[in-house]
Write a structure and sequence with these properties.
Layout lengths: L5 E6 L2 E6 L7 H8 L5 H8 L4 H10 L8 E5 L5 H9 L3 E6 L2 H13 L6 E5 L12 E7 L8 H10 L1 E12 L5 H18 L5 H20 L2 H10 L2 E7 L1 H4 L1 E8 L7
Parallel strand pairs: 2-5, 3-4, 3-6, 4-5, 6-7
Antiparallel strand pairs: 1-2, 7-9, 8-9
Helix pairs in contact: 3-4, 7-8
The chain binds S-adenosylmethionine.
């Protein structure tokens, strides 16, 4: 398939594979994250009241990856989840993202952590993964679905590259259900976050005012039961969910139907 054509370039001793882009389908995400790549880890943790690393650890704790198994971390960004996966398992990890500056920041961290033999980064789109069917023992995606046009099509694409019996896992922001927690969340995301990000940088100011309304809008369109149904329609069954931090995050994990993979 023409769009799946890949060409390899060497950057910093770690392979970055560049995938052909399709129009400007990902321009918004690239613009948003291209402007915050250098400080992403720090502010992600600070703006989530130190919850972000906790959510990430919980997600990775659900992953069962044996020695030599191969996992894909879609929307890897600065490779934080991919690195956590490599640290907590003996598997090999491929991190994929559509925003090159995020990947370049990730490359430095992978290098610094001495994980360049086990974590490789690929530039590409979640909507058209440049891998054959049933390549990976596990596929993880974090904070991705709000940036794709058709979440179900993208989930199906991630399930395609997963081996039968392999695990699909995700972490996304959520909206608290409890009325008081929800009111505090709305106040924080609509009033506090837009304000505190103003002096940080133009990129973070943009994120600060975009994030709250975008999360609310996503869950108005796709509530949790709808998402679990989507996973099942894409062949992931059973599906389990957890809503840490009073529902401020949503973690989902499940197994692809069919013969068990070599995990
Ligand atoms: C909020 S960041 C999360 C980064 C990382 N997963 C983490 O938890 O630290 C979202 C990432 O999704 C990437 N992204 C957005 N749309 C994408 C797409 N269609 N395909 C691949 N990556 C995408 C962005 O470039 C960005 O790096």
């Amino acid at each position: 398939m023409a769009e799946r054509r890949v060409s390899a370039v060497a950057e910093g001793g770690i392979a970055v594979v560049t995938q052909r882009r399709k129009g400007d389908a990902n321009a918004f995400a690239q613009g948003l994250f291209g402007g915050i790549s250098g400080s992403y880890g720090f502010w992600a943790q600070a703006l989530s009241f130190l919850q972000y690393l906790r959510w990430r650890r919980f997600l990775v704790s659900r992953l069962k990856l044996g020695r030599g198994a191969l996992a894909l971390d879609v929307s890897t960004g600065t490779a934080g989840v991919a690195i956590e996966m490599a640290r907590r398992s003996q598997g090999r990890i491929v991190g994929l993202d559509v925003t090159r500056p995020m990947l370049l920041a990730g490359l430095s961290t992978v290098d610094r952590e001495g994980l360049d033999g086990r974590v490789a980064l690929v530039e590409g789109r979640a909507e058209e993964l440049p891998f054959p069917d049933e390549t990976f023992d596990a596929v993880v995606f974090t904070f991705l679905l709000r940036y794709v046009r058709e979440p179900e099509v993208t989930i199906r694409e991630m399930a395609r590259v997963l081996k039968p019996g392999g695990q699909l896992l995700s972490l996304e922001f959520g909206v608290p259900e409890n009325a008081l927690a929800c009111a505090l969340w709305v106040f924080y995301t609509r009033a506090v976050m837009p304000l505190v990000t103003v002096p940080v940088s133009r990129g973070w100011r943009r994120v600060g005012s975009f994030l709250g309304p975008n999360i609310s809008d996503f869950y108005r369109r796709y509530y949790l039961e709808q998402l679990t149904d989507m996973w099942r329609r894409c062949g992931i069954n059973p599906v389990e969910t957890a809503r840490p931090s009073l529902g401020g995050a949503v973690v989902m994990w499940g197994v692809k139907e069919g013969r068990r993979g070599n995990r």
